[in-house]
């Protein structure tokens, strides 16, 4: 009989990563990932819109809720999006089975992404995957209904994902050429998501000067967090490390209201070409810790990617307002409810990729106390997500709840 321990030691386990794009925006994001020839992760597109799926170059696609929507999209109805996902819960289960790290990409504010993404996240979490969602938030000009839907969706996702990274589409107005098409602007926004996924992929797969493993990532994201902090910076040539730190500090994603300013748990990933040295990584760590998480529990990884030449890239992912509740407890309670939901068959065309062998996964311990988290409710009909018993902050005719860079029309150079 073979010794299971020695088997484990001789064969390092591969981390299985998957990106699931949900709804129109999510599918666009995985399409772009595919077109950029990123081969490190499996890509899947999930949508209620059959026509849009048919036009996608992605091989693994799942058309959900055809019996509810006729394959024509959710019509902006979140309940329809959620129902559509529940109708294909078995296919979703199979899709996330054996995945260690699941990235969900979606645009919030419509029906499919907002309704279906939390269902997918919940199933993945139940199966033991670590789930990180990147979600585009609608433009302010899309106004009240979409913004409220998006805020609601953001709350639901925060309940069902280990980390949620919101990317406000308003930033696109700042960074795009006034003559750029909407598609070009979306492509720019989606490039952030691609960079983030690449960085996390490198962290898990490339040779490290300072290795960060999946167990550490899981440990860092194992508690329910209120807000996420996420940013990217890069530098090239002489002084690349210092330039990357300066670039990170200017990252517009770190200056939006959706993000926390400081982290309780901070993950810093440095990817550099062959020239990056220990002194560079130490300088980056000190600067980043001081700026974003002086009192944080900082986890660091530094890897060499020779393709980067003389460049250095930094990716930070932090969580704040972390509760003492381990994540799995919350989800298992919610999971009991969804078991009663209807199941459905999958069409040949919609079947996910064949199952690969399951890697072993670390055990996550659950707390003995039930999960509790109070939530404030947002007032109806307001695009900015005010709390029920408060009014907007208007000062000298200016709406202070709008980000300063938008009120003043400041252009952020990326
Ligand atoms: N970053 C980015 N945002 C997008 C893209 N397409 C749409 N969005 C944004 O995402 C929000 C949701 O739109 P969709 O993803 O098309 O909606 P959906 O989830 O498919 O929902 P339904 O169309 O109602 O079924 C919109 O309000 C846009 O602000 C995209 O390609 N990239």
Automatic annotation (TrEMBL):
It holds the Pfam family FtsZ_C. PROSITE patterns: FTSZ_2 (PS01135). InterPro entries: Cell_div_FtsZ, Cell_div_FtsZ_CS, FtsZ/CetZ, FtsZ_C, Tub_FtsZ_C, Tubulin/FtsZ-like_C, Tubulin/FtsZ_2-layer-sand-dom, Tubulin/FtsZ_GTPase_sf. GO terms for biological process: division septum assembly; FtsZ-dependent cytokinesis; protein polymerization. Residues 210-328 form the Tubulin/FtsZ 2-layer sandwich domain. Residues 334-400 are annotated as: Disordered. GO terms for molecular function: GTP binding; GTPase activity. Keywords: Cell cycle, Cell division, Cytoplasm, GTP-binding, Nucleotide-binding, Septation. It is found in: Cytoplasm. Residues 338-352, 363-372 have a biased composition (Basic and acidic residues). Belongs to the FtsZ family. Homodimer. Polymerizes to form a dynamic ring structure in a strictly GTP-dependent manner. Interacts directly with several other division proteins. This is Cell division protein FtsZ. It comes from Pelagicoccus mobilis.
């Amino acid at each position: 009989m073979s010794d299971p321990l020695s088997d484990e030691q001789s064969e390092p386990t591969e981390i299985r990563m998957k990106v699931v794009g949900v709804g129109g925006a999510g599918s666009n994001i995985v399409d772009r990932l595919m077109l950029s020839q990123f081969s490190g992760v499996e890509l899947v597109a999930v949508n209620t819109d059959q026509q849009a799926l048919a036009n996608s170059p992605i091989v693994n696609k799942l058309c959900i809720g055809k019996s509810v929507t006729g394959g024509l999209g959710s019509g902006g109805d979140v309940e329809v999006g959620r129902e559509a996902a529940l109708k294909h819960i078995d296919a979703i289960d199979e899709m996330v089975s054996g995945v260690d790290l699941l990235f969900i990409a979606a645009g919030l504010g419509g029906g499919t992404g907002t309704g279906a993404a939390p269902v997918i996240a919940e199933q993945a979490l139940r199966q033991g995957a670590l789930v990180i969602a990147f979600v585009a938030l609608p433009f302010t000009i899309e106004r009240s209904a979409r913004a409220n839907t998006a805020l609601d969706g953001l709350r639901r996702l925060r309940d069902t994902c280990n980390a949620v990274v919101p990317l406000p589409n308003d930033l696109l107005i700042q960074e795009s050429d006034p003559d750029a098409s909407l598609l070009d602007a979306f492509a720019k926004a989606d490039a952030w998501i691609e960079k983030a996924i690449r960085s996390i992929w490198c962290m898990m797969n490339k040779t490290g000067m300072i290795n960060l493993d999946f167990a550490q990532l899981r440990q860092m994201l194992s508690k329910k967090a209120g807000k996420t902090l996420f940013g990217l910076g890069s530098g090239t040539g002489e002084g690349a490390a210092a330039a990357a730190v300066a670039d990170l500090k200017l990252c517009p994603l770190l200056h939006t209201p959706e993000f926390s300013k400081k982290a309780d748990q901070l993950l810093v990933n440095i990817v550099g070409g062959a020239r990056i040295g220990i002194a560079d990584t130490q300088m980056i760590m000190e600067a980043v810790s001081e700026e974003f998480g002086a009192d944080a529990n900082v986890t660091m990884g530094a890897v060499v990617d020779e393709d980067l030449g003389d460049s250095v890239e930094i990716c930070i992912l932090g969580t704040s307002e972390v509760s003492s509740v381990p994540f799995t407890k919350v989800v298992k309670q919610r999971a009991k409810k969804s078991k009663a939901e209807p199941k459905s068959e999958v069409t040949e065309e919609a079947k996910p990729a064949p199952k690969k062998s399951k890697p072993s996964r670390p055990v996550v311990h659950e707390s003995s106390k039930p999960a509790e988290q109070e939530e404030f409710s947002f007032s109806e009909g307001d695009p900015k997500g005010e709390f029920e018993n408060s009014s907007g902050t208007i000062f000298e005719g200016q709406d202070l709840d709008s980000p300063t860079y938008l009120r003043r029309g400041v252009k952020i150079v990326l």
